[in-house]
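TL;DR need structure tokens for one chain.
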Amino acid sequence: MVFRVLDKGIGIAADALPRVFDLFVQERQGIDRSQGGLGLGLAIVRNLVERQGGRVSAYSDGQGLGSEFVVHLPKAATTATLEMHVPSKTVGRERDVAPALGAIRILVVDDNVDGAEMLATALRAKGYDTRVAHDAPAALRLVEEFRPEVAFLDIGLPVMDGYELAARLRERPESNDTRLVALTGYGQESDRQKTREAGFDHHLVKPVDLEAIDTLLSRERKNVAG
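>> reply
TL;DR here they are.
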């Protein structure tokens, strides 16, 4: 089966086409799209398609000239099969892809369901053992059995904010050594000082630079291995 999707949008520059399905890759946005996305969507598409034995390609004549995406799927890849692999929105759900042997265990805690699931999917595609919670009580229940080595915590959580959650995690033997990463919309030195005092090891400002996440996790992987 072949599916073609065409648009008349901003197009894709020639030098970006070879990398457009890579994790964390985004084209430069116009001023009217300054917030952009997370740079994960096309990487997730490729992951889903390839797991069905298919392939996906992107074409564009350049910026401002639209894009075309072509998906090739084997006939055996039925709609029912595809639906089995679409990420659900269940808190603490099982992994979509088996993590690599000895993979770092990562917990993502964010009440933005779509954002949390997209980040978790990208991390799983990188081979990390990743779980998701959407509030602090769910996260605290999850750490008891999951024992994450790294946790990304949104500061603006409901019920209990990220500062209090970090303090609670530091009090627990199963998570007092977890590397805590704050995700927040504020990046002043006073904000960074506040996260340090709450027990965070890293401070990332939204919209998050996902290349920074990749670099951070590569460093943490070396620390764990060492």
